[in-house]
Amino acid sequence: SIAMTFGTNSNAGLYEAVDWLVASDRVDVVSLSWGENDVGTYNAYASACPAACNASTDGSYEVLGPVLAAAALEGITVLAASGDCGAADGTSGLSTNFPASDPYVTGVGGTQLTVSSSGVYGGEIAWSGNSTGATAPGCQNQGGSGGGYAPFPRPWWQQGTGLPSSPATRGVPDVAADASTAAQVYYGGGPTGVGGTSLATPIWAGFTAIADQYAGHPLGFLNPSLYTILRGSNYSAIFHDIRSGSNGYSAGTGWDPVTGIGTPRLDRLVAAL
């Protein structure tokens, strides 16, 4: 079953929605498509918290962070879109996107998928927002899979996985899925195509729900298991390693700040998890 949860378009709304989901004990997987760049969020947090934090202003880190950690402890998988504005994420420099950048969240980037006329997989490259109409508003000229290096210390599960030694911070995204094909939805009274990492993230939520079903229990926080696969000898059999394309950073072998560790061969990922 799916629990659709709505909040106001604000930090407070995001906190309230996620907090309700975690506290309700109704879900095993949470998919988040709302986010904001880490540059503004981190600067606000550093200047105002913890002395004057509240959920409506600087609450993304100070308030939502503990809720995301609680979700991991309770065995809830939280997935979040890495953003649709490339490595800049709508800033004049470089920035990751929160909450995809949170160490207790699995950040989901995007790819551009090719299939044959008969539906056979034909390969993927990193998603660039101006390669298709399926982009977020305002990102058409700078778009693509969000990613980079977040203002959090590098988690233990990313150690020894080929990430660069500098900066020694959390790398985003962790994984990726098709962001370019565009799903047809009704919006404003008519059909329209929606893509980007806001599409890739619920795709991964579906992957996770299938894996949970086969496991017979919630898999919870995925990142330690995903990076164990990356370090293992069967990585290339379980994931498509996306090596072409750019969001400002370039895709490459293994983990990269565009598509993470890649896209899954789902049957093999389910077996590995």
Any overview of this molecule?
This protein is an alpha/beta fold and 273 residues long. The chain has a single domain (11-272), classed as Rossmann fold. The chain has helices spanning 11-24, 38-48, 59-73, 197-215, 223-231, 235-238, 266-272, and strands spanning 29-32, 36-37, 77-81, 97-98, 106-115, 121-126, 148-153, 169-172, 175-178, 183-187, 190-194, 239-240, 263-264. The longest helix has 19 residues, at 197-215. The radius of gyration is 17 Å and the shape is globular. Residues 44-59 and 130-137 have low confidence and may be disordered.
Radius of gyration: 17 Å
Give the overall silhouette: globular
CATH architecture: 3-Layer(aba) Sandwich
Q: In CATH, what is the homologous superfamily?
A: Peptidase S8/S53 domain
Give average pLDDT, whole number.
86
Low-pLDDT stretches: 44-59, 130-137
Helix content: 25-40%
The separation of the N and C termini measures 22 Å
| CATH level 1 class label | Alpha Beta
Number of separate structural domains? 1
What is shown here, in short?
One of its GO terms (molecular function) is tripeptidyl-peptidase activity. With 273 residues, the chain is an alpha/beta fold.
Helices, strands, pairings?
Blueprint: H1 11-24, E1 29-32, E2 36-37, H2 38-48, H3 59-73, E3 77-81, E4 97-98, E5 106-115, E6 121-126, E7 148-153, E8 169-172, E9 175-178, E10 183-187, E11 190-194, H4 197-215, H5 223-231, H6 235-238, E12 239-240, E13 263-264, H7 266-272
Parallel strand pairs: 1-3, 3-5, 5-9
Antiparallel strand pairs: 2-4, 5-6, 7-8, 10-11, 12-13
Helix pairs in contact: 1-3, 4-7
